[in-house]
Queue: 3 jobs
Job 1
Amino acid sequence: MIVGHVVHRYGQLSESFIPDALEALERAGVESWVGTLAVERRDTYPYPPDERLLVCPPPPLARRALDRLLGRSGTERFAGRVAERLRPHHPALVHAQFGWAAGSGTAVARRLGVPAVVTFHGTDVTVAAPGDPVTRAFPAIDTAVAVSDFIEGKLRDLGYGGHVEIIPAGVRLDRLPYRGEHAGDGRLLYVGRLNAQKGLSVLLDALPHLDAGLDVIGGGPDRAALEAQAQRLGVPATFHGPLPRREDVLEAMQRASVLVMPSRAMPDGQAEGSPVVTKEAQAVGIPLVATDTGGIASTIPPDHRADLAPGDDPRALAAAVERLLGDPAAAVARARRARAWVEEQFDAERLARRTVALYERLAP
């Protein structure tokens, strides 16, 4: 089966789950072609082969201005170019990643006369509103995929009335060896974007209540402000920036004692959909402290969800961390259970087979 995927920017460091999913689909018998405006980090994400990357960058500004005068939309122009390049390969359907690409993906599918699938991951629906471009694409979607029950609820709130499949973002377990039963180096670890929604500022406010240092991996618009906050608080936080090599992030997870995910829900609706970091941490076996916001709970074993900390509460976050640091045996037992949960629920190979089954129902 050949499937055309539409991703506005392919290979972004924060969206490793997309190339991982396409590789898993390849192993499950799906040949993926990707229509995109731009490609990033080709060295990090070498799949798919170059001949299956259909890069259609935006035209020069003068051309875009002329198109606007003539009433031609950028979405339709991009969709036309992708469809033209996909047509000779006869894809069975088109699958758009993120609601941002829903308009483009459904337009490509319409031109090719095939079904359209759109996966919604998080902010693409949590900050959307009725009448937005994301919601205007709803009638043309044959099946929506939501990465968690939380995201399905947001889709329904926006008025989507079609069929929804829950298929979370998976992780490559073969790349995430379980670290065994050791307590780590006594330090905390944060991995993620440096922006308000990810909540690192809350974790920094929690550090004065803890006898532990913090390693921060990630980049983003708030880095300077967060470094200034750490300096003002006098807390032992080391900012390493983004680490594009997966091996470096894995090594950090293998060393640290606790990974903390302090995400919060924002006033505009931003919240986690089905975060990959919690799954990767649990697969590796590093004890995890996270907040009960958005779709985070769905990535945690049901028997651990009562221990999730409330968002935006530094003292509660510190208490949750302290409980794990103070009881290494319990932390190891939790980590073992969490690894089993990830194997059951988030193995990329299993999720690829579920995705193929969806494709076959839509385009037998």
Note: The chain has a mean pLDDT of 93.
Job 2
Amino acid sequence: MSPTFMRWLSQAPWPSIAVEIAADRVTAVEVRTRSGGATVRSHAIETLSPGLVKPSLTSSNIADVARVSRTVVTAISRMAGRHQHVGLVLPDAAAKVSLIRFDAVPDRAEDLRELIAWQLRKSVPFDVADAQLSYSPGARLTGGGREFAVVIARRDVVAEYEAVCTQAGVKPGVVDVASLNLINLVLAGSPRAGTDGDWLLVHVEPDYTTIAIVRAGALVFYRNSLTPTESDLADFVHQTAMYYEDRLEGAGFGRVILAGAGDDSRGADALRDALSARIHHEVEAIDPRAAATLKGRRHIDQATLDAIASPTGLLVRRRAA
């Protein structure tokens, strides 16, 4: 089952436009889905000035809502469609993703939610009562237990991002975080990724890095940290691979995917080579075209593919479920 988190306005129609607000950019993507598959009809990437968005679990994220909102308006104005509701993608660093195991799962949803919230009180740096929480079933455990992938973020932090959209004249009907929708993108574009083998995602942004491992469509490992240097990142990935082998009884990755490596293609190539040498596995760049064709584009650079990947993943994720 693919991760589907933070669906707080589930009564809204599923959007065909998604907006990602990252530390350095706003990306808008429009996807149309028909029986023949999904198509990215249009996309726009607008640069944000440094300091306008500072992703954080514990403090304000948006320094100037009006300025970021104007950037969203500019990006959305380049979309082919006009819609009231949009999907909203937040930076990973604005929320905490945890994997929580229960040997016995309560029958009632309310009891399960309370139990998850109680577990999170030990690990989040804010009051759970002031947070937005969502969860998705993960891997089944021996003996009948289950693991759950849980996302939690402060309500006031999420409200800042939602206010940006509201001032731009659109309503966020579904809200999610970036790396989880990179996972959904891969699952939507690779039918076997949801059922066979294990694969590793490395998501690099200017202000954070996320590493995730997916097994048979379920998230089994997730870690987010400040973006390290290239050598430290290679060590970070290597340590994750060792943990995977020792603690997760990993039999080897079927794929290793790098997303968001930056605008410098030579630098991205060097990073892929460094990671590949460290974990002895080919590292591929993420490519949204596996899940959705790009209308009217014969060539597109990797930096653009990286930028549109998460919002595209949100829009096509129902195909991954």
Note: The chain has a mean pLDDT of 89.
Job 3
Amino acid sequence: MADGAGMMKMFDPGRVKERMRANLKNVGVCEESCFHVTESVLQTSLRGIDSHGIGLFPHYHRVVLTGRIARHPTFSLERTGLSTAMLDAQSAFGHHAGWEAMKHAVSIARETGIGAVSVKNSTHFGAASYFAFQAAEQDHLGMAFTNANSAVMAHNATRPMFGTNPICLAAPMLNEGPFCLDMATSAIAKNKMLNHQRTNAPLEPGWCMDADGRPTVDHRAACYLGASGGYKGYGLGMMVDIFCGMLSGCGIGHEVVPMYADLSAKRNVSHFFMSIDIARFQDVTAFKARLKAFADAIRAMPSVDPAVPVMIPGDPEKQAFIRRSAEGIPVDEPKYKEFLAVDPGFAEALR
């Protein structure tokens, strides 16, 4: 969903955030879940990642009403070792469960140098960067992974096995926001394919597959996703499922319930979070200064196209955050109608 494309509405960031929180509170969601869902999707949309931003809110509202999401979760945490723990999310919003898990990972890392927390029985957690930033803001390296229902082809297969299974790393930098690599191991996110189908936007080669597992650029025929980097990307997707589904003892690959199928069914999603205390390895200020210098050296490299600067992961999102914070968050007309169907009060959140 490109800024300014087609018939776009523009949400005011502050007003849409308050409307989302009020909406969830009105349907009985606890204060902490309301906070983390809205903070996550707003941050993600401001960073220009529409596949995991506020556009998901109407869906989240619906699955609260069906009972898929626990409105008042009581998390169960088991400390399993000096540096490890397992958290049972009990079907909470993944945004809330993930924040709780990373909070414990950071706390453990302060004790031992590294903290790793596995999460089971969760739901969609939005953008992985929300949790990795949580660690980076406390001068740790933050890593976040999640599995998802099968939508990505195993290499040379005719049926999907893995979810989009993202990999995320955030690291603090001197005098700017953290470095952040947040990437699906699929060519694109599943919600990005759905966004293109909803807006009739063209697909790029390699993004999607049809029902027979063959590459397609026809958004009407697209059913599944290609792996990022072919067999290498699908291997990374399997790695994420080992971290998430296997370590948690929860669902893997095709065992995870689809996000948009039976909206009352528990999804069996699992996550994995890691926090590493930089101070156990390097002086934190020196590390942040060196990473900043490393990033700036990359950015200063000559560009093949002088009109397109060399960037590091996270730079486009930093630019989008500045722009959208000032101009608002774009939503296409069909998505805007979804918001109004959930709550007519969203009309008051427009700029």
Note: Residues 94-112 form the longest helix (19 residues).
